[in-house]
Specification:
The chain contains seven helices and eight strands; from the N terminus they run E-H-E-H-E-H-E-H-E-H-H-E-H-E-E. By secondary structure, the chain is an alpha/beta fold. The protein has a single domain, classed as NAD(P)-binding Rossmann-like Domain (Rossmann fold), CATH 3.40.50. Helix 2 links the parallel strand 2 and strand 3. The chain binds NADP nicotinamide-adenine-dinucleotide phosphate. NADP nicotinamide-adenine-dinucleotide phosphate binds next to helix 1 and helix 4.
Amino acid sequence: MKNVLITGANQGIGFEVAKQMAQLGYYVYLGSRDEQKGLTAANELYNEGLTNIEVLKIDVSDLESVRNAASTLQSKVEALDILINNAAIAGPQPQKISACDITTIKEIFNTNYFGPIQTTQHFLPLLKKAPLPVIVNVSSELGSLTMQTSESRSPNWDNYHVYGATKTALNTFTINLAHEMRGTKFRINSVTPGYTATNLNNFAGFKTVAEGAKPIVQLATIGEDGPTGRFFCQEGEFPW
Ligand SMILES: NC(=O)c1ccc[n+]([C@@H]2O[C@H](COP(=O)([O-])OP(=O)(O)OC[C@H]3O[C@@H](n4cnc5c(N)ncnc54)[C@H](OP(=O)(O)O)[C@@H]3O)[C@@H](O)[C@H]2O)c1
């Protein structure tokens, strides 16, 4: 059975991805920074008959927590097949870059950009032991420079200048890591779930979590001939 770790999987899109991956027969490590919240989420899935799930305590913004999570997983599995860097925060709004205080900016980057990097770095040794290692970085339309520079961008985007920048940075992480891993079996991509009703946006999104999770699961389960170093949405490729 292939192993998958999803960070921030105790609620929202990550929880739904955990459910769909378990339904597909993967052994799911449900990442949660709060162990109790993780156990409650996992119990909900056990009650639906999904027993191939285990909670892994991981706070992606806390290096010690990431180290502990990696060594816990190392003691349990030979290899990690799939890492889904899903955990993120939106941060307080409005978020105009002219006025947003630097502490807030650093906090959002700490979770959304440094978090996936330090998580990936610590799980790379286990990923390298998998026959076809896959990394999915959960990004956003708001990270797309093409969309950020579009004449028709929504005024609502001014609420997310910093959040958007963290996702642009995350996309460069995808590009550079995929470049570094070229010539290997690693498949590393960014994906946006689309505007999905979750806690992140006070449930204002148009999509259901089942819809939001779908492109993430599709990219997580790609084969050897699948893409790497690219950015996707449900409908196909998304502009950087
Ligand atoms: N919803 C959308 O419209 C939308 C659109 C584009 C992209 N996305 C992306 O989709 C992903 C999932 O977001 P969502 O909408 O499902 O949001 P959500 O419901 O707020 O879930 C976010 C998850 O991340 C966790 N998290 C936050 N900080 C963390 C940390 N430092 N360490 C570990 N876990 C942490 C949260 O844990 P707690 O429960 O402990 O807070 C929660 O489990 C994110 O990457 C987001 O940027 C969402």
